[in-house]
Amino acid sequence: MKRFELLATTMANEIRSGSRPIGSRMPSLRQLTTQHGVSQSTVFRAYYLLEEWGLIRARERSGYYVAPGAAPEQRQSTRLPPTLESAKVEISDLVFSVLEAAKHPDIVPLGSAFPSPQLFPLQRLAKSLAHASRLISPWSTVADLPPGNEQLRRQISLRYMGMGIAQPMEEIVVTNGALEALNLCLMAVTRPGDVVAVESPGFYAALQAIERLDLRAVEIPVDPVSGVDLQALADALDKHPIRACWFMTSFQNPTGAAMPQDKKKALVELLAQHDVPLIEDDVYGELHHAAASPLPAMAFDKKGLVMHCSSFSKTLAPGYRIGWVAAGRFTDKVQRLKLMTTLSASIPAQAGIADYLQHGGYDKHLRKLRGSLRIQLAAMDSALRRWMPDDARWTLPSGGYFLWVRLPSRVDAMTLHRLAIESGISIAPGPVFSATHAFQDHVRLNFGHPWGDRMENAVKTLGSLLERACD
Ligand SMILES: Cc1ncc(COP(=O)(O)O)c(C=O)c1O
């Protein structure tokens, strides 16, 4: 992709995600040349392209403005009317069958939840692991028991500080990936039969945890651009004795939605009024495509009610299974549950990641990773435009590596999933993201893999399978 195409795609993403509202003035040539380190002619060509795509319009002697109608294509109606009933959840069989089908390495991983291992600094990480392992004291088996390796918690706490959040390392508990952190938090604040608010569509593991712990779910609709519907949440809080919320506020899985900062603050305030804990799943927070890192909702928490969960699985070290929770007022409870369930996260893996964070150049790696994801998103977007029918819709996310695609309504995502697997391609069909198996005409596609003929052909094949997947 040429420089001007990359710049145009970045700005198109900003327009389509709503961060550049309709009617707003686009930056001047001078601003863009300085900001992106490109020539004026690159900016000109990028603006011509955006004009061609119908996203901006020139006004005489006044510059470029976001065109009316630039965003609606992205504002797909994935929102369900809020039913706001609480329900028992039975999702596991469906999820397991979809995960199983996608496991084979020859399958093109459009349904995968991970980015390509090629994007991680595995050699450098191995060096840190070897170095740290040599220095491990026999006593660390005991010393690194929960809350976990001190160096690692200090490094994590420093990363919070980098975002302007004062997060004491004493309140950070290291876990086996974010998934364990999320599950421990849920256990810490609920008992069987309790009601938990989750997103719809939402990460299937939240539904599985609810199923396993014999809880009930209230599904709150998610806007694919701005995240959870706060009015629907307020109604649900009035109607049900909700004991906890499990939400993603940045780059939600599967929609890619990112709550604006004000909305995160409003969410935290709403929950504080009801004294309801928020389990914040932020595994993709570091994978923002824009320059700045979004603040998590926990940044606005004054009551210790937000448990902020994340990990290195999506950003650095997929197989190491190291995650954490900053658990606020629930720290002791989470720590005890960790001890009672899996005792500890791997001691060498904790030490290895701590060493990498200190010496390995994590921020440099993240910048590179984000750059790759931006390019891959542009390529996936172009491929979808080429191979999907006109009435397919998707929302360009401003972070992460998922595209949530609404297929023509007559297409059944589960049938498409079956046909795609037969053709050697995995997709994540919409029904796995909802307790009621809704979103039958949606799929989540992963663009976390370097682009090439294999990916392009997979999207082309999906397009050609749509007719056969109609019900
Ligand atoms: C939204 C979300 N949260 C949490 C996890 C689990 O993260 P980890 O691999 O660190 O346990 C995943 C993994 O797919 C995810 O997509």
From TrEMBL:
GO terms for molecular function: DNA binding; DNA-binding transcription factor activity; pyridoxal phosphate binding; transaminase activity. InterPro entries: Aminotransferase_I/II_large, HTH_trans_reg/aminotransferase, PyrdxlP-dep_Trfase, PyrdxlP-dep_Trfase_major, PyrdxlP-dep_Trfase_small, Tscrpt_reg_HTH_GntR, WH-like_DNA-bd_sf, WH_DNA-bd_sf. Residues 1-69 form the HTH gntR-type domain. SMART domains: HTH_GNTR. Keywords: Aminotransferase, DNA-binding, Pyridoxal phosphate, Transcription, Transcription regulation, Transferase. In the C-terminal section; belongs to the class-I pyridoxal-phosphate-dependent aminotransferase family. This is GntR family transcriptional regulator.
